[in-house]
Design brief:
heterodimer; A: about 260 residues; alpha/beta; six-stranded mixed β-sheet; three-stranded antiparallel β-sheet; 8 helices; B: about 280 residues; mainly alpha; about 75% helix; globular
């Protein structure tokens, strides 16, 4: 068996969001001392091992804890309980264009995004031409990013995100925005990453891309992993469950 | 007792790794600060000039109200009122912008915090750097105003700017970290800061001088004596305008304030970092 890339042991994350109730003066003043909160267990005692060289998919309904789990892997969220070990350099594409400033030129944002992701300025300078060529943006690089189309923005952001040469790529549903040519190109880049024993963790609602791209997958429900195994099996179980719930609700409304 | 010390230590510790990590991110700090500086005024016609214009125009308003409409005793200011006013106004504006920048530095950057792992102190420091660049330009503007107007050009006393600016930077950084940390669970601070800084402006010897303070009742004199801005401004007034001051006294008072605010603010901020993402 391959070496582990990400190991989660009993990871638990709780949120205590403020309740959004109708504001009254008494409640507003009361909030200064005692805030009305509600505890939500976003991830509930999850164990998981993701290995080097594999593309791993996470499927599940909205609010199942998929994105929260990715944020734990990205180390932006410290678990309340349990441990997470990540072996390798991680690039996080949970959202495209993190660190970008829309008012500034594409050139400036390559530096901003690269520095935010942890690169040195010199490293960005060396790769600058490659980044822009990959994104196919030579004629627009000095224009403010706010004038870019969604696809141009996504290409530049992905290109910058790959510039840190990650071993581990954490992807949310972000690559669905580019055009066909870009999707093919980014897919090739990710396959090359896998061949070099890299790891990709992929959260998606597009079940087809999970089965096509990932070897293994996990299905999350209410912060727990309810099924883990070969991607196709897990996706089929999940699909069957979605279908069952839909049928039940249709029957209920029908009778 | 031992367990208490241990608990305190665990809660308020700043590791060497953290500081090394932070130092490794200095280019990020610079690009962030310059990017914000540029972006903020990208759509205005005057652009970066607003960094100078904002305090100058504010100074002009106060000069009109307190210098022209009210009759003032010139001995209160150690010279022309405008010089006294601007040499206090510009440094105060730097502290003010450090606070307004700091209070937004964490809560205004949620996408960075949610997605990337880096020492969070980068953000309030970048806000400080942004304000500092503006402050340096306003010092140049100061001499461009009082030079031709009053023949007051930089003299030998300008070397005192070095300790003054150093102490002021340390003080502002501590303040910026404190408000950045506090704004995460207490978002209301965002609305409060403009009033707090305005109050602080009036409580500081900017529009009035020592003679006015001496005539004030005891409680007001006590507030004036406890105000960290007072010794900071005394250092600047001597350095920029040669207005006589007991410099060693001012440096000790301002330096003590700066170190205290910096140490407490920084430790408080850093020990809270792990929890920040949860509130966003």
């Amino acid at each position: 068996m391959r070496e582990p890339a990400i190991v989660a042991n009993g990871v638990t994350v709780r949120f205590r969001p403020l309740l959004d109730r109708k504001p009254t003066l008494r409640r507003s003043l009361g909030r200064l001392q005692h805030r009305e909160t509600d505890e939500i267990v976003a991830i509930d005692d999850v164990d998981l091992e993701i290995r080097k060289g594999e593309a791993f998919g996470i499927v599940g309904r909205n609010g199942a804890g998929k994105s929260t789990f990715l944020r734990v892997m990205a180390k932006t969220l410290r678990p309340d309980e349990g441990t997470i070990n990540v072996y390798g350099k991680t690039s996080t594409l949970l959202q495209l264009g993190v660190g970008f400033n829309n008012q500034l030129s594409g050139r400036r944002n390559v530096y901003l995004g690269g520095l935010a992701a942890g690169l040195r300025k010199r490293e960005i300078e060396e790769q600058f031409d490659d980044i822009v060529t990959y994104a196919g943006l030579w004629d627009a690089i000095d224009r403010p990013v706010r004038t870019y189309s969604t696809g141009m923005f996504a290409r530049l952001a992905f290109s910058v995100g790959m510039a840190i040469k990650p071993n581990i790529l954490l992807l949310d549903e972000v690559l669905a925005v580019g055009d066909e040519a870009f999707r093919t190109k980014s897919m090739e880049t990710m396959k090359a990453l896998l061949e070099k024993a890299g790891t990709i963790v992929f959260v998606s609602h597009s079940l087809v891309s999970v089965t096509e791209f990932c070897q293994r997958a996990a299905w999350m429900e209410n912060g727990r992993i309810v099924s883990l195994g070969p991607a196709l099996d897990v996706v089929n179980q999940y699909r069957a469950d979605v279908e069952r719930v839909r049928r039940e609700s249709r029957d209920k409304s029908g009778s | 007792m031992a367990s208490l010390t241990l608990a305190v230590k665990r809660r308020f510790s700043v590791s060497r790794d953290y500081l090394q990590d932070l130092w490794g991110r200095r280019e990020f700090v610079w690009y962030l600060a310059m990017g914000n500086l540029k972006a903020r005024n990208a759509s205005t016609a005057l652009g970066l000039l607003w960094w100078v214009l904002n305090p100058v125009l504010l100074g002009a308003v106060y000069w009109f109200v307190f210098g022209l409409l009210f009759d003032r005793d010139p001995s209160d200011y150690g010279g022309p009122f405008l010089i006294y006013l601007l040499s206090g106004m510009f440094p105060f504006y730097f502290t003010q912008s450090s606070m307004t920048g700091g209070v937004n530095s964490i809560v205004g950057n949620t996408s960075l915090l949610a997605n990337l792992h880096f020492p969070r102190a980068v953000l309030p420091i970048a806000a400080l750097v942004e304000g500092f660049v503006g402050f340096l330009t306003s010092i140049v503007a100061f001499f461009l105003i009082v030079g031709p107007g009053y023949g007051r050009w930089p003299g030998f006393s300008i070397v005192w700017l070095i300790p003054a600016v150093t102490i002021h930077l340390v003080f502002n950084l501590g303040l910026s970290m404190t408000v950045a940390r506090l704004a995460v669970p207490f978002r209301d601070l965002n609305n409060l800061v403009p009033y707090l800084t305005r109050m602080w402006l009036y409580l500081s010897p900017i529009l009035y001088g020592q003679a006015t303070i001496n005539r004030a009742p005891g409680w007001a004199r006590a507030i004036a004596a406890a105000n960290p801005m007072a010794p900071i401004l005394r250092m600047y007034r001597y350095a920029l305008a040669g207005i006589p001051a007991d410099m060693s006294n001012a440096i000790i008072a301002a330096g003590t304030w700066a170190v205290a605010v910096f140490v407490l603010g920084t430790i408080w901020f850093i020990s809270y970092e792990g929890k920040m993402a949860r509130y966003l």
